[in-house]
Design goal:
By secondary structure, the chain is α+β, with helices and mostly antiparallel strands. The chain has a 6-stranded antiparallel β-sheet with strand order 1-2-4-5-6-3. The protein has a single domain, classed as Hotdog Thioesterase (Thiol Ester Dehydrase, Chain A). The protein is built from 4 helices and 6 strands.
Length: about 150
């Protein structure tokens, strides 16, 4: 599968239905950046009239994970990918449409190349920031991805 926003959103419908139902969608993707949109709605709400933290985390993770998937595809190698650590910070209630952006795609390619060179797993830390319609930061997340090129 070619890694494009349209194909990732289709993939999500079949393989990540909770993400699809929550309204999460990839809206932009290039070699270094990915933007994922999620809108506050009944299905992803918490009792405090804002978006549940896990829905925010899901969108933030997608913005980093799509960049990992894209670089794996570009490497033409079989690479295992796994989140091994996650951290999040929350600053404002998440209401309306939130855009989660990761601009660190270049880190992923470097880690994959190092794994190819050494045969060892590599760790890459990617950040995603959630911004509301008023351009205020509502949350940010950090994901530690473990990447390892498979033999064969």
């Amino acid at each position: 599968m070619k890694i494009t926003p349209k194909n990732i959103n289709r993939f999500m419908f079949f393989k990540l239905p909770l993400g699809w139902l929550s309204g999460m969608r990839v809206t932009f993707l290039d070699t270094s950046s990915c933007v994922v949109k999620i809108k506050y709605q009944w299905l992803n709400q918490n009792p405090f009239q804002s978006m549940f933290w896990a829905a925010q985390g899901m969108a933030a993770e997608m913005s980093t994970g799509v960049l990992v998937m894209k670089e794996i595809r570009n490497s033409k190698k079989k690479v295992s990918m796994l989140v091994t650590y996650q951290e999040g910070n929350f600053f404002k209630k998440a209401t309306g449409t939130i855009l989660f952006t990761c601009n660190e795609g270049s880190k992923v390619g470097d880690a994959i190349q190092e794994s190819i060179k050494t045969g060892e797993g590599q760790v890459v830390i990617l950040n995603s920031q959630g911004i509301n319609e008023r351009e205020e930061v509502v949350s940010n997340f950090q994901f530690q991805w473990s990447l390892r090129v498979k033999n064969g």
